Amino acid sequence: MTESYLLSIILFAPFVGAVVLLFVSNRRPFLVRQVAVLFSGISFFASFYLLFAFDWHKGGYQFQQNYLWSEQLGIQFHLGVDGIGVPMVLASAILL
After folding, report:
1. In a domain, 16, yes or no
2. Domain assignment of residue 48, yes or no
3. Range of the domain at 22
4. What is the Cα–Cα distance from 64 to 46, expressed in whole angstroms?
């Protein structure tokens, strides 16, 4: 797994799952459950991997991503996680 995209996977997997569920028929509840578990599982296992890949001896933010969306407006998308954030990310993935 590419670690630089790990936080984006954790963040966007539930959203992608919700979009996929828009196109799944509600007459097939078993398939709906499978798709929901699949995308929740992706987020959970990526969060679990983050817990073990995080370097606890290093300070500051890790797994940072910074994308410039609009240079004229100065809009950026910046993700990163620190030592306090890792357990919070895992807890939110468990609750999801």
Report:
1. yes
2. yes
3. 3-56+83-95
4. 15
Whether 51 contacts 83, CB under 8 Å = no
Q: Within a domain: residue 10?
A: yes
**Residue 61 forms part of a structural domain:** no
What is the rounded CA–CA span in Å between residue 85 and residue 61? Answer: 9
% pLDDT > 90, the chain: 84
Alpha carbons 7 and 51: distance in angstroms, whole number: 12
Tokens representing residue 53 in the block: 């890949």
| Whether the predicted pLDDT of 4 surpasses 60 | yes
Q: Whole-angstrom Cα distance, residue 74 to residue 61?
A: 22
Report which of 12, 16, 10, 8 is spatially closest to residue 67, judged by C-alpha positions.
8
Q: How many domains does the chain have?
A: 1
Q: Are 1 and 49 in contact (CB under 8 A)?
A: yes
The 10s digit of each residue's pLDDT in 5-42 is 899 999 999 999 999 999 998 889 999 999 999 999 99
